[in-house]
Amino acid sequence: MNELKDIKITSPFTVDAWDGSSKARTARLYTKHGLVQTPVFMPVATQACVKALTEEDLHHVKAQCILSNTYHLYLRPGTDLLEKMGGLHKFMHWDSSILTDSGGFQVHSLSHLRKITEEGVWFKSHHDGSKHFFSPENVIEAESKIGSDIWTCLDVLIPATAKENEAKKALEITKRWARRAAAKYHSMVPQNITRNEDGSFSVPHSILFGIIQGAIYPRLREEAAKDMATLPVHGFCIGGLSVGETREEMNLALRHTVPHLPDGKPRYLMGLGTPQEILDCIEQGVDMFDCVWPTRVARNGQVMTSGGKVNIKNLVYRTQDKPLDDKCDCFVCKNYSRAYLSHLFRAGELTSHRLLSIHNIRFLTRMMEQVRSSIKEGTFLKFKAEMEEAYK
Predict the structure, then answer these.
(1) How many CB atoms lie within 10 A of CB 204?
(2) How far apart are alpha carbons 124 and 55 in whole angstroms?
(3) Is 294 left (phi over 0), alpha (psi -120 to 50) or beta?
(4) Cα separations in angstroms, 364 against 61, 102, 273
(5) Are the beta carbons of 29 and 23 closer than 8 angstroms?
(6) How is the chain split into domains, by residue range?
(7) Is there a contact between 213 and 240 (Cβ–Cβ < 8 Å)?
(8) Cβ distance 83 to 112 under 8 Å?
(9) Is 196 exposed, middle or buried (0-12, 13-18, 19+ CB in 10 A)?
(10) pLDDT of residue 108
(11) Phi, psi of 367 (to 5 degrees)
(12) What pLDDT, on a 0 to 100 scale, did the predictor assign at position 295?
């Protein structure tokens, strides 16, 4: 698709500061729903809802952008219904930014049957076994109906343990699909992003991120990054990590990915949510993160604090009349004791899921605020070392 080479785009992204001792940076990304300051953690609203939380809760934890999923929304409630209802923002009463994953991971992990062809992927719904087809083009059309701010290209995900020749085949398909997705996007969306005098951007439409694959193989990661950097996309998703590889393997893959991406576009590592791993990636120049982990572990009684992990099920917390984290500003820490939260959890009260989830997400959004400040102050590696000590 040589015509893509002639398409000129403006990425609504500007870097404000770099850490002097690493590749960490803080920046601003603009979408049609406003400003997203990076590094940023995005809570996961897979099916138009962050589990157990409301829109008011998300604003309280200062979420700037959330992630939803094309696969799930396509199957239920359906993208035609979402379009009829005025789009996902109106449907779920959310007035800030939304990024939609293309669904490649869910097709891989949830489908009863997956058959990949050059044209796209056939799969069966995990709800009722009905047969469906995703192509690079109709996924872009689905995201248009959803109305999200950031769209992603359909990709082929393989296990972290896949052999290099299998990873190579998946990458080649992903690269070709990215070109088709970009061509479809540009046939639908006029590029009229403008930069304002104050350095902000006016973004009247959705923007597109391409997905980089390559498993844990440095040569393939480098190839994928260099190829994606040539396409007219506004940002980059780093996919196929946090799917079973070791922390060392993930960091090696990043070292062979990030240096080959332009500084003037955002980088988003998909599906990563633990503090240590997020900080590793920020150190290497990654800007955006999402994961279900903080709400999933909350439903099992685990919370993150400035002093390390707390498992509210443990006996010691049943009588502690103090907050989960005395350094946290969430309303859970301001109003409820560890003893009360332990009681709710042990009694099977669903309110515990909500309150612990609120705290965990606020912990990560607040951590990102601290990261942004530390980068500007040149103290990021000191902050990272302190977090490593708390979570070792």
Answers:
(1) 10
(2) 31
(3) alpha
(4) 9, 24, 8
(5) no
(6) 13-291, 293-386
(7) yes
(8) no
(9) exposed
(10) 77
(11) -60, -40
(12) 98
The 10 Å CB-count burial string (b at 16+, else e) for 148-187 is bbbbbbbbbbbebebeeeebbebbbbbbebbbbbbbbbbe
Which class would CATH give 13-291?
Answer: alpha beta
pTM above 0.85, yes or no: yes
The torsion defined by the Cα of 23, 28, 29 and 31, in degrees rounded to 10, comes to 170
Q: How many CA atoms lie within 13 A of 122 on its CB side?
A: 7
CB atoms within 10 A of CB 112: 10
Distance CA 304, CA 297 (A): 10
* pLDDT at residue 1 in the model: 59
C-alpha 354/C-alpha 357 separation (Å) is 5
pLDDT of amino acid 392: 87
Query: In this structure, are strands 150-152 and 194-195 parallel, antiparallel, or unpaired?
Result: unpaired
Which residues of the chain register pLDDT less than 50? none
Q: Hey, what's the torsion of the CAs at 222, 223, 226, 228, to 10 degrees?
A: -120
| Lookup result for tokens 């400035």 | 306
Q: Which residues are catalytic?
A: 101, 290
Report d(CA 325, CA 16) in Å as an integer.
31
Query: For residue 378, what pLDDT is reported?
Result: 97
Q: Can you tell me the distance from the alpha carbon of 18 to that of 285, in angstroms, rounded to the nearest whole number?
A: 9
